Amino acid sequence: LRQRNFANKMVVNIQISQWINQVSVQNDAIIGYCKFLHLMNDKPNIPLVPTLDIDLGWHTHILHGQNYRAWNRKYLLRIVNHSDTIPKKTLNDGYVETESLWSREYKEAYVAPNSPENLPVTSIV
């Protein structure tokens, strides 16, 4: 059900579905997801909030449950929970913190310039 709710968000909005079907966006999503995981590893006690493209990579990774768990154990030394039921204030505060950490770590904007979003998605670490 959680995966279905996320998938519905991705396909219902035509702008998002056209954007996410671009190969360059998919490649950037993979790179962004890897950077996001790096931040998770460095900041395990900070609630990080993904952008839409990073969340797509995360949901895709979770679909491969056994590989997801094994990868988490090997590289993060824990299983990272992905929750889509976080209160809006916590989500927004986490997004601001993630954006700040991302900017300091990677010297770049957290949201890609060509992204249809300027707000966080409804999930959090």
Automatic annotation (TrEMBL):
Entries under Pfam families matching the protein: GRDP-like (PF07173)
InterPro entries linked: GRDP-like
Membrane-crossing segments per the record: none
Descriptive protein name: 24092_t:CDS:1
